[in-house]
Design goal:
mainly alpha; 2 domains; two-stranded antiparallel sheet; 5 helices; 2 strands
Amino acid sequence: MAQHDLNFSRRVDRLDRKHNAMSRGHDIVQRPDGLLVAAPIRRRRSWPARLLILIVVLFVVFKALLFVSVGGVTYEERVARLQAGTPVEAMGAWLMQVDPVTRVLAAQISDLMR
């Protein structure tokens, strides 16, 4: 008898979760066997973490490529010139300053280019 109560409780919990999900919106979909069922609409976050990480990684790679192509001394001179500019340019200089990750990545890129 206890096993039947446990199975019943699990089914009720599953139905409660589905009901809560359906209350936020649902769509009618057709399963492969032809049966039409209501399925909850899944909401996506506006800025997924993967996209944000990808943007940061691409920005660091861009900085490393720029550092290699222009040269270290010239790159740092240009960043210093930006630092002395308007507040927007100073913010850009802060973003473009050479960090340890950029230096390591630039060294690897320059080794690959030789």
